[in-house]
Every structure is written in C-alpha cells, then in structure tokens.
Design a protein that fits this description.
Length: about 425
Amino acid sequence: MRSMPKRMLAVEAGVCLASLFWLTGGCSKPPPQAQAAAPEVQVVEVEQKDIPVYGEWIGTLDGMVNAEIKAQVTGYLLRQLYTEGSFVRKGQVLFEIDPRPFQAALDQVKGQLAQANSQLIEANAQVLRAEANQGKTQLDVNRYTPLATQKAITDQELDNAVQANLAARAEVEAAKAKVETAKAGIVAAKAAVATADLNLGFTRILSPIDGIAGLARAQIGNLVSPTGDSLTTVSTVDPIKAYFTVSEQEYLQYVRTNPTESQRQARARAIQLELVLADASVYPRKGQFFVADRDVNAQTGTIRLAGLFLNPGNILRPGHYCRVRAVTEIRKRALLVPQRAVIELQGGYQVAVVGNDNKVSIRPVKVGGRSGSMWIVEEGLNPHEKVVAEGTQMVRPNLVVSPKPLVAPLATPVK
C-alpha cells in the first residue's frame, strides 16, 4: 500500500482532536458568574416619643462680683501680701504702700490738734478774766450811780465807771469769740487727724470681698496712685454668672407664652439651665435664671441674660467660654433618628430609607431641633421606618442591601 500524503494525515488528526474536545465538553458554554452579595448596612427604626427640645446659646462666665482693687493714696508699693490666683477673705491685706510719709503727716496734724486744744484753754481763761473784770466795773457803776444822784461824786466819775464797764463787756465778748475760734480750730484739727489717719490706713490695701484674687498688675517699688491702673481684681465666683444672649424673637415668644409678671417669674424659677464647657463636657450642676438686661442690642437684635451656677471649689473661673442650654418646649410624638443617619447636601437634608424589600430609597426630610445625639424629623418620615445609620456612603437609590440592626459602640473603660 502506498503511504498517505502528509497533508491528509494532518487533517485526519485535527478532526479526531476536535471530536475528542466536543465529547469531553470542550464545546459547552462557560458557567455563568456568581451574583454579587448585597452590601451590609446597619439600620435603626424611626423612633416616636415625647421629647424635650433644647435651646442653646453661646455664653461666657463672669464673677458674681468683680472688685477692682486700686490704690486710694499715692505712694510706693512696699509689699504684696497675697498669693496670685488664691482665695482671699474680706479684709485680708493684699498690698502695702510705704506708710512713713503718712505717719509723719498724722503726727503733724496731731500736734496741730494739741495746739488748738491749748488755744481753747487759753481762750477760756481769757473769758474768765474778762468776766471778772467786767463784774468789778459793774459793781463800780452800781455803787457810783446813787452817789452821783446825791451829788456825792461828780458826773465825770460816774461816766468813767460806765465806760469802763462797757469796755469790760467788750473784752468778755472778744474773749468768747476767741473761744469759738479755738473750738473751730479744734474741729479742723480733728478733721485733719481723721484724714491723715484714714490715709495711713489706706496704705494697707484690703480685699473688700471674699473671692479669687487675680494676678498683680503692679510690682514692688512701683509708684501707685488713685488715678492709676488697678492693682488686681478679686472676683466672687460661687455662685458664678453665665452671660448669654437670646434673639429678640425668642424673648418675645417667651413673653407671649408667659404674659403676666407672676407667670414669667414662676417660669424663670422652673427653668433649669445646663452648662456645656469648652471641652464639650456638661457641668454637673444645674443653674437658675438670674436676670435679663434692660434693653435689646439694636445692632445684633439680641438681649443679654444671665444665669447662676453653684461653683463649690471655684472650678469655674470668669472668662470661661461656654454654651448655655435649657428646655424650651416638650415636642409631642416627635420622630427621631440618629444624627449620623442624616445626610446634609447643599443646605438640605436626606436619609436613606430601607423598605420591606430591602431596597434603598433616598428621601428628603425636614429636620427640627436636636435632642442629644438625635435629630427631630418634622417631615419626610413615618414611625418605625428603617433608616441607614452606618453605611450611608455606599448606598444609592434602588440598591438592594442586607440590613442589620445598628450596634452601639462599646463604652471606653475609665482608666
């Protein structure tokens, strides 16, 4: 037999290989790809309940009393007798001015008072002498008058006696005037002594109140005076005042809700203020409303209010930044969602709602105030609907998700 051409052998081999590939499934379609799993998100139900609605305002703390300590006499500062930033008592000596010039002035006016007293004694003695002399001349007149009538003495002698008596009376009046002058000198000298003694006392600068004393603004050796700057400030900080401002509209709403003075006073007593400090911590003690300013700021349209907070231990200090908040109303059957579930977009708010078929719909909502970590939703949601709280960044409309209940984060243990 003749051998087959090489080309025919190659064709037969290709046909055999193709048949083998078909028989073993080589011609079957590739298996379909597995469908992607639905993304997992954490959801919460829209909660409905009565909740308090808080108003919150920016505020600053200030002392109940802030006493500016100033020198009342001019002199050189000799000593500082308190620890800056410490608690001081009423009447405690804070500074001392060099007392020597004031002691010298006091000694000088005391000498003038002693001199005035001696002048008064001398003037009283002159009055006694003048009155004795006038008594003698009066006796002469009394004795000469009947004698002159009987012509036992001349009229000239009687006239001389009368003139001598008049002169003696004038001396008495002059002596009495010297007494009054001496008394006036004593009054002036006593006033000078009192002033000098007061100025000497002013060299010891005392705290007028119990409170926290600030940093000293003058150094030892400085010349201080009543017209100079204050030396320090002492503040009463228990209780401490928190100043904050509310809008004119908020104030008018409060007045309309409490139209009479008695109603406003009762409401003010019932309000409990909370203090949120600069580190976002809430001060543990509640405060009470204290006073409202007399006028509304025409530039800002706000009115200044003040609340009082007990401050044992003087922890809070004047100048602290704070936020003051209080319950302004009780919202009935309010709808609540976590703040993390609300998406702010171009001034509006949205939430991702998961339906019964686990499909996501992005729904615009109208939010009201906040209650703790929750938003109050006024429009756009219904009670018990499920909204996405974790995973909002991965959802889109009509996406099928795998909803799981929101897991609260574990509390960090206190170290």
